[in-house]
Amino acid sequence: MEALHRRKIVLFITICVISGLVNHVRGQDAGIPSKIEMTDACQYPVAVGIEKGYIPDENLWATSVTNQARGPKYARLRGWKGGGAWTAGTADSMQSLGIDLGYRQVISSVSTQGRRGSNEFVLEYYVWFSSDNQTWNVYTNEYGTPMIFFGNINDNSVVNVELYYPVIARYIKINPQRWNRFISLRVELYGCRFDAESASFDGSNRITYDLSGSMQFVQSRRDLLKLRFRTNAADGLMLFADGNQGDYFILELVRGRLHLNLDLGSTAELSGDTTMRAGSLLDDNQWHEVEITRDERRIVFNVDRMNITNVSSSDFLQLDLDRKIHLGGIDNFLQPGKRLVSRQNFSGCMENVWFNYMNIIKDARVEQPRFKIYGEMYFGACQAGSIVPLTFPTLDSFLTVSRPVGQQFQVSFDFRTYNRDGLLLLHNPTPAGRIIVKINADGYIEYSVDTGGGTTVRNILTNRDVMTDADYFTDGLWHSFKIEIVPGVTSGRVSVTVDGRPDVSNRQLDFKTSPTFLIGGGDTQSESGFQGCIRRLFVQGEPVYLNSDVINTGGVINGTCAVQDRCDPNPCEHGGICSQDYSAFYCDCGDSGYDGGVCHTSKYLVSCEEAKLLFPLLPEKSMMIDIDDSGPLYPFPVNCVFQGFQNSIMELSHDTTDEILVDGYPEAGSYMRPIVYDAMKEEIDTIISRAFRCEQYIKYTCFQSKLLTDAGSADPNIPSWGWWVGRERMVERYWGGSAPDSGKCACGLKSECRSGTAGVGLNPCNCDSSIPQENIFDDGYLTEKDRLPVMELHFGDTGNIGDEKWGKHLLGPLRCEGDFLFENIITFRKEDATINLPTYSGAVTGDIRFQMRTTALNGIVLQNTGTFDFIEVRLVFGNIIQFRFNVGNGIQTLEKMTAYPLNDDNWHTIHVERNRKQARLRVDLQSPVELDEPSDQEFRALSLTSPLVVGAAVDYSEGFVGCIRAMQVNGVLMDLRGMVERGEVTYGVSAGCHPKCESNPCYNNGICLEWYSRYTCDCAYTPFRGWDCGREMGVTMQPEYMIRYEFDPAFGDISTDEENILIGFSTQEKHGQLMFIRSDKNPPEYISIEVNNNGGIKVIIDVGWYRDEVNTDIPNVDLTNGQQHVVSVRRINSGRTMIVAVDDYPPAIKTWNLVSNSDTRLDNPRYIYFGRNETTRPGDGYRGCLFRAQWDNQFPISRVFQDPRGSNIYVEPAGKIREDMCGFEEYTHAPEPMEFRPTPSLQLNSTSNPLFGPGRAEGLSTGGGIAIGICVGFGGLLILGVVLLIFHYYYKQKREYKTYEAKDARYFDSPDYAIAANSSRQPEVQKKREFYM
């Protein structure tokens, strides 16, 4: 039984193994791993041993040292020996510290320190890595540019930096870029040993895996290919797999780029061939990582962490492979029906090649079944020879190579460049002459050979590569060049070979070479230097190495080709065309409608609402708009109709605006007219979603042709003779002016449609009456936003051509009113109020656009910060906008000063942008301010961590008060208003633009001055004062008091024949002069307002024609009752009518019938008196209170109490006149509710652990959580107890303390003398003692 049991177990295990192998080969969906990590073994990185000494001294080196005590062997983290750190002898950005790890490792983080106690440390650095210590790669970010790592901020703390992705290398270099005082560094690296399954390919060997046979085929909906490779060859087939049904999976290297060719199945109508390209300049002999994932039709192609995503062209979802998988090449490149560009196999190394479950190289090495190796295959360390390139980084970089004098001239090399007009080779033979090879201004090879004999051989060679459309050599690819010159009287020859294509000239030549050969520049005449890379450099048949025999001028770099393909991926947006040279790229935006360094910023406005602000006097304007600014939507033409203060209307036209005849379509809906608009559907969707309302005019004119009558079809898509199709492709059976889904026209809703007989019938439309008249039509506006615009028109029942049935349709433009973008407004009414948005996502390219309205002089509008980096937009001095940012190379500021104020309480547009080429600031339609990125530095991406804070700085300081609207970040609307309306933000903000002065808070015609966080009332042009101009300004007069107000003669003649005079009073005496206005002529002209003997008002006027008076007659009312009254005196009708009114009583009106030339003017009034004038006896003056005095736009009493009082004011007696409110109470507004910034609260209901974060909380058990809670609670109580003890001790010491002050000090001149006299009769206060039992 036991033996039987064992056999069953063995059988079960065998079945499981076989099943696993089948799944392994077939790649079942459930079995395909979602991710294969080559660095899985390094989940727990450890220090490589620099600090502990596991890395020996000889494995540490540096480009320079200050002295032996500061050598590289002392660059050990936390080390203290020697000088305490490595210190570079030269302080420039070319210095580096190198580490030989002994073998390849996966490095995941770096820790650095400075030199302790010296204030010397590295602020920023690059990381370089290599596998052979000859060719080097710089660590790049996700955008393909060298990544800056932030180092230390002092000389002793340890800063650890996690790499964005781990690197696999044996050699590491730390290259400081910024430092404090001197370059001093201590370092440690963290990682794990890297074990690879590698194979070397020479173009003739390959690995195959046989998929033919039962149960061996691949049928998968998901696939994963992952590998690393290294090569010097620009072309080569890397992987080829196909099936008998025509499916294939091909990965090949073409001109230094990887091509993925995939077909999941083709049909006669549709080819499934899909091609994707990724990477660039991959023939640099460096290791590159490739990962290709497929999930049904979705394909992600990743090369060196740069993702390209695509969708398969095939309609099929499954990859069927049942022939062979070839790695490294195939034996026959004739593969009909398959896209295969390469015509040679791969040369180089590949390692860790995973295809679904198969580790192909490992399985081939251990000779797994169905694997076969063709040719001699070397497994293990990469055997590809290292070709060391040279980089000429500047126009002044060149090499001077010395060789013995000879009879022949021979130089060969490979070169790679994007720069035109560069010198490659220069030699001056003897006895005379000049040999020059250069890349000319067109990118062609131009050579000239002059040996001094009067004969010059010159030619220009173009690129004749059949695989390129360009004929120049400045394409960034490697090109081979060889020149050989043989002297001879009859057999002289100049042979130039470029990319294997010879160019030979036979000439009579007689020369000898000189000892000096210049490579890459050095011409002292007119030729510009070469920028790019050179490798395989041979001079006179001998290889050139950078050693003592070669003079390196201008910093030629050995061991790396620093040429980058700056156009891959294309940094130019919106279809911009990218070109480049060694140090920069350039974008040709053409007619794309976009502008700026990377074609990111739109040239056009975002809507007609914005255009209305800029063109307020135009009734309409045709223009291009870009509705999402820098977003993905494209510009399109519209016609903007401006309606004054109302919302503007945007009209979007199409190709069917003219009336079109419909004839010869008898079947229902057989006429179909697609409507092509001037914008794509995505743009139309955005127009409609942002509009307040939309409409579209539609009209159908008919001659015996039905419209909406049921056509009798059983097909639900043919509901009537005619219909239209909306934006969502739904059939719409109703007409303009009618209700949706009603099946009627406008007349049908009112039962007013025409009938076939005279009168009105019940037809759904006029046209359904089939009346043989030409003036029958149905029209109206379609107004349902969700269904507009009309995308198709369908009609029928128009008979045959030539009969008496036809129709005509007319469709107007889509008209949309308003724009919700400009309704997305919020008001910041507190200087520390903020709204937090997601962190600004413009690390490489991005822009922010908004409109602001304010009266503030200064304020930060927005700010986003990181550890060191930040961006900020601020208003300065009311007419300056600053765009400030820091990416680690210092604060950069763009500033735009306008000739007009920006704090004028009007809307102004602010647009800021930063990209890989430049930073840009634009205000309204002013010319932009631009700041180019430094050409001598690599581009630095923004590293921001805080939220994008709108309204103030991140610490709530220097806030902005005012309104902000239409804020877009990278073309996406930030819903600030929605955040406020949903209650996400409440402190200091309001939805909409609500200035404080909007409610007119100033009483009595006071002028409200807007500050948004507050308001002030200017009461200067009112007879009131106070915060809200609600306080009466009056004066209590005694009979001997007098006030005289003198008009300023500097204002010229102020003669008038129409006046508006006000004076308020309260008195109990039936006499007295309230107000007296007179001129300064003799005899004087005047107007006097007095209290008469009846307790009424008397106005005396003497203006030249004669003297007269007007008295009020208010029955049974005595105005001298001690109450407040206001007298209004007005002259109208050119001085011929006077109206005297008191309060709301009926006025006294008097009109003088005068001839036309009568003098009714009060000539040049000079003084206004209150209480009495100089001719009034002191005891006869007015007794009572006067207030609210006004002469036209002058307010004399309010000027009396200005501080300081004007020189035109005279009061008598001096010092007696006091301001009085005359019995009124000041009226003000109720105070606004107090607002307090919310205190951040603990999220007690949060699902994540607030102590450990979501990542670490996942594995926390309930018991563990309780234990931690108990520990935290106990710790809190312990801390509270300690605080109480400290407080108790401190309080006791403050109440009772020891003193050694002399006790009899009062008997001496000072306490010091008392101490000297040793007088100490008073006892000292003893400290209390507490005993704890």
Q: Indicate the structural class.
A: mainly beta
User: What radius of gyration results from the CA coordinates?
Assistant: 46 Å
Q: Which strand-content bin applies to the residues?
A: 35-45%
Q: How would you sum up the global shape?
A: extended
Can you give the mean pLDDT?
A: 87
Terminus-to-terminus distance: 78 Å
Low-confidence runs (pLDDT<50, min 5 residues)?
Answer: 1-36, 1242-1268, 1291-1333
Provide structural commentary.
With 1333 residues, the protein is mainly beta. The protein has ten helices and 88 strands. The strands form 16 sheets. Strands 1, 2, 3, 4, 5, 6, 7, 8 and 9 form a nine-stranded antiparallel β-sheet that branches. Strands 10, 13, 18, 19, 20, 23, 24 and 26 form an eight-stranded antiparallel β-sheet that branches. Strands 27, 29, 34, 35, 36, 38, 39 and 41 form an eight-stranded antiparallel β-sheet that branches. The protein is extended. Residues 1-36, 1242-1268 and 1291-1333 have low confidence and may be disordered.
